[in-house]
Every structure is written in C-alpha cells, then in structure tokens.
Amino acid sequence: MEFQLKYITDDIKLSCYEDKLFKTEVVFDHHMLVWFISGETKIIQANQNYLFKAGDIFLIPRNQLATIINYPKDGQPHKSVVMHLTIERLREFYTNLNAKPEISVLQKIRSFDKHPLLESCLASLIPYFDIQEKFPENIASLKITEAISILRMIDKDIDNILANFEEPHKIDLSSFMEKNFMFNMPLEKFGYLTGRSLTTFKRDFHKIYNITPQRWLTKKRLELAHYQLTEKNKRPVEVYLETGFENLSHFSFAFKKHFGVTPTELKQAR
Fold first, then answer.
1. Under 8 Å CB-to-CB from 3, ≥6 apart: which residues?
2. Is-contact 49 234, C-beta < 8 A?
3. Among 33, 29, 9, 36, which Cα is nearest to 141's?
4. Which of 89, 207, 198 is nearest to 148 (CA)?
5. CA-to-CA distance for 240 and 21, rounded, in angstroms?
6. For residues 193 and 211, what is the distance between their CA atoms, to the nearest angstrom?
7. Using alpha carbons only, how large is the chain's radius of gyration in Å?
8. Which domains does the chain have, with CATH numbers?
9. What is the pLDDT of residues 57-74, one digit of tens each?
10. What's the pTM value of the predicted model, to 2 decimals?
C-alpha cells in the first residue's frame, strides 16, 4: 500500500502507511505539529536522532534538514495527524502579542510527552476526515489557534520558535555542509539554508572544496557509509537509510564503484 495523505484543509492532514517503511528526506517550509496515532517514526538530524511512538506529540521547526523513516508497528499502520503552523497564520496570531523571540535559540524538535490538552485538540480532528463536505475554514482556524495557544501554555520557550519569522541568513558554508551532507536535498535547498542563491552556493562551494557539490556529497556519504559498516557494525539496509541514498540498489552500486566491493561483500570479508 502506498503512502496516503488526506487533507481536511491545506494545513491539517491525516497520513497513513501500511507497508514495511516509508523514508523521506525533507526540510519543511512550515512548523509541523504531529500526533502519532499508531506506528513508529525515526527522525535523523545532524546533531541528534529521535524515535517517536504511538501517542507521542512533537513539533518539527521549519527549515530543519531531516531524514524521516516511518514504520508500521504491532500490526498497525503508521498513522498520524499533522498540523501545519504556517508563517502567515503565526504572524496573524502574534499581531497583538508582545512576543520577543530569542533568535539565537536552537531550533530543535520539541516533544510534548502525550500531553492531554494537545492530544484532545488533535484527536478532535479525526471525525472530520470522514466527512465528505468541505471543512469550514473558520473551524480549521479555531483548531490551529487552539493548538498554538496550548503550545504557548505548556512550553514557555515556544515563542522562540513560533514567533521567529526570520529567513536563513548567510552562514559559514563549510561548517553547515560538514554537518548536513548526509541529507539528500536539492542544491537549491542547501543554498537557501545557507543564505545563498544557487549560483552563489556553487561558486562559494568550489572556492572551498575545488570540486562540484554533487561529487563531494557522494564521496562524503560513501565514506560515512563505510565507517558505519566497519566501525559501527550496521547492516547495509540501515546504512543506506541514514546516508542520503535513494534505495539499497543505488547505494550498493555507488559503494562498489567507489570501494571495489559491495556493502554486503565488505561485511562478509570482516
């Protein structure tokens, strides 16, 4: 069964997946408030990995690179309710509030430990997914406002994320790429997140590394894969999921071309 999405509005959706796993590498344009109904999700970021299970509620800040791996669990599909907290809606929410976010605060994933108020807010949306009529925008707006208000009540630092409307500024390219090379993103997205146009990104990258971004990224991912196979004793299927390769076949082909053996052969030789 393929990954399925059902929207009741542009900003509220139900996702469901029943196959073995679903992997995607993303950087969200909006903050994402997620409640897991069933299943399990592993989120891999440059500095930390997360494992979320049924009942967990968490917020993924915008502009964060991540590999997301969704699994069914205990015979149940991977199922979640997701709410987009867009910049436009947040600007409207904060218009008359005197919120002064600390721009320097780390924009990391926030977990809310099955909080009953948030769970009640998100669970109340489920019946609407089965209604054929168009979901009233005023109700959707009220639900999103309710969720934001609850977040502000239970997390006193959440304004540092939700009320921060700045776009990425120009940062040190080398430091960013060394931390985030394992994410299979378009070069345009790497450029945006480092505060550069695509042309400027490529120019600056070549000045630092004297090689094209594509070749450098492939080499770094393969070196990381080799390390995980030999030093961390991970299986090839685990490694390809965490090193930016599209599938196991592509990973094996690229690995053999670079190292002369497939990942499986390397494991067997040890």
1. 15, 16, 17, 22, 70
2. no
3. 9
4. 89
5. 13
6. 20
7. 21
8. 4-162 (2.60.120.810), 173-269 (1.10.10.60)
9. 999 999 999 999 998 988
10. 0.86
